[in-house]
């Protein structure tokens, strides 16, 4: 597989929206929300293209030393092939300074939880009724990169 890496300025809201709709059972962000997010100076997008088609991406907001992951999506045709893990580990390895990475995951999404735990994320809280469609709790998880400490 020859996968080209793409950054925030190399993706369009419509392709993020299309991939998210194919990847998430509960929907996801609207195209307008992606357009707004892409314009934010704190937004970070990292993805992969095969033959020009976006097959996976991760998005986040970076404020000081906290990186809050907002979306992780892998095209269903590419799921269960290590794409999500490769994308996340490659992207997170690029952060040189100490950073705390945060994310939320549905309590029912055991596959994603296992992936995040494999990478090193730990659950630190359960937030009830966090998700809609259907209403569900979320595990809040974090990962400390390069010996991040809360000072």
The whole-number mean of residue pLDDT values reads: 91
Poorly predicted runs: none
Q: How many helical stretches?
A: 4
The chain-level structural class is: alpha+beta
Give the total of beta strands.
Answer: 7
CATH architecture grouping: 3-Layer(aba) Sandwich
Radius of gyration over all CA atoms, rounded: 15 Å
Q: What is the CATH fold-level name?
A: Aminopeptidase
Task: Let me know the CATH homologous superfamily.
Answer: Gcn5-related N-acetyltransferase (GNAT)
Shape: globular
Tell me the helix content: 25-40%
Beta fraction: 35-45%
Please characterize this protein's 3D structure.
The protein is α+β, with helices and mostly antiparallel strands and 151 residues long. It has a single domain (4-145), classed as Gcn5-related N-acetyltransferase (GNAT) (Aminopeptidase). The chain has helices spanning 13-23, 31-38, 83-92, 110-119; strands at residues 4-7, 43-50, 53-63, 66-74, 99-106, 122-131, 136-145. It has a seven-stranded mixed β-sheet. The longest helix has 11 residues, at 13-23. The N and C termini lie far apart (43 Å). The model has no long low-confidence stretch (mean pLDDT 91).
């Amino acid at each position: 597989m020859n996968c080209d890496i793409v950054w925030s300025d190399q993706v369009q809201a419509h392709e993020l929206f299309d991939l998210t709709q194919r990847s998430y059972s509960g929907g996801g962000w609207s195209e307008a929300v992606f357009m707004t997010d892409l314009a934010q100076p704190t937004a970070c997008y990292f993805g992969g293209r095969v033959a020009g088609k976006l097959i996976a991406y991760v998005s986040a907001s970076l404020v000081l030393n906290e990186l809050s992951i907002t979306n992780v999506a892998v095209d269903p045709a590419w799921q269960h092939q290590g794409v999500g893990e490769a994308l996340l580990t490659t992207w997170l390895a690029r952060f040189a300074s100490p950073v705390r990475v945060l994310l939320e995951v549905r309590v029912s999404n055991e596959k994603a939880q296992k992936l995040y735990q494999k990478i090193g994320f730990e659950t630190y809280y359960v937030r009830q009724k966090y998700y809609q469609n259907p209403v569900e709790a979320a595990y809040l998880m974090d990962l400390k990169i390069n010996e991040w400490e809360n000072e």
